[in-house]
Amino acid sequence: MKLFWFELLYPLFLWLLALLPVIAFIEFRSLRFWLKSNISSNIKSSKIPTFNFLLRLILKSVAFIIFVLILTNPGYTHVQTEESRKWIDIVLLLDVSTSMLAEDMEPNRIEAAKWVIKDFVSKLVSDRLAFILFAWKPFVSIPLTFDYDYISSYVSTITTMSINQRAQYLDFDWVLKNLSWTSIWDALIMWTDALIAANNWDTKREKAIILITDWAAETWIHPKIAVKYVIEKWIKIYSIWMWKKEWAPLCITNALGVKDCLYDTDTWLPRIVKVDEEMLNFLSASTWWKSYSASSNDALQKIFNDLSKLNKSEIKVKEIKSFLPAYPIFLISLLAILSILSFLEFKTRLNLNGIS
């Protein structure tokens, strides 16, 4: 029980304070009896030391209250909180292939992703974060770091031209036709190895990869091989598919605000971006990955709000309470009051003996 700034270990003793009226009654009865026995009837009432009696009664009441408080064992409680938490190493993989310019989100897929990523980073506390861009090949933009401000400022500068998407030994027209390629599986394997290496010295850290892509294409490593490899390393994967069920034309708004659509070089019809649903079905059936479908800006924001709580369930708080007794303060006060009472009692008796 808390009394002002003191913690009372045995608050039940406070019930003894109910005896205060009884003590006052006994004191009045004692005074009346003493006066009848020791003072003659012809003494004026003004000479009876009423003030001294009231002062002594107050001091006795205070002394009794302090005595009761001592019985409750008052003290100060200091609470020391120890928080153990499984911090997470998070790798953000962002697709910057040309298909991310599709404007089925406002203003387009990549800009919508950048906005929610910055909001996600602002909510991190002590999780290390790495940032990877990938298109036809993965590119390590920022290694694992706690510098969230730098990550946020870097995210603002990302475009589909942030990495060189030209494969010098491939026909670029073929690359463009395939939307600059999206080497999802290469990026996953590369950062699976990087996370394992980074955590050799810290086994307490969880490892998670957040993959943000429209899943328009894949290259190089076969998806089934990559998926099997990542699963064996027990790394949590959270994949976000930015797409609508309806096909989205690949349109780009240029610096003049004019919307240009990319055209297929064979049919000269607007280029269409669609998700690889066959691959999504394979992932759902063969892995324990947690996957999300973001078909709008609001849906994407909600997904990242959920992801910002990744490590909340791992927090363990341990409170250590230490108690510092405060009864010596009350004991000294009690002794001081008793000393004053003894002096007043002695003085009163001398005065009354003089009167009688």
From TrEMBL:
PROSITE patterns: VWFA. The keyword Membrane applies. Residues 89-240 form the VWFA domain. It comes from the Bacteria. The keyword Transmembrane applies. InterPro entries: UPF0353/GerABKA_families, VWF_A, vWFA_dom_sf. Keywords: Cell membrane, Membrane, Transmembrane, Transmembrane helix. It holds the Pfam family VWA_2. The chain crosses the membrane at residues 12-32, 53-71, 326-346. This is VWFA domain-containing protein. It comes from uncultured bacterium.
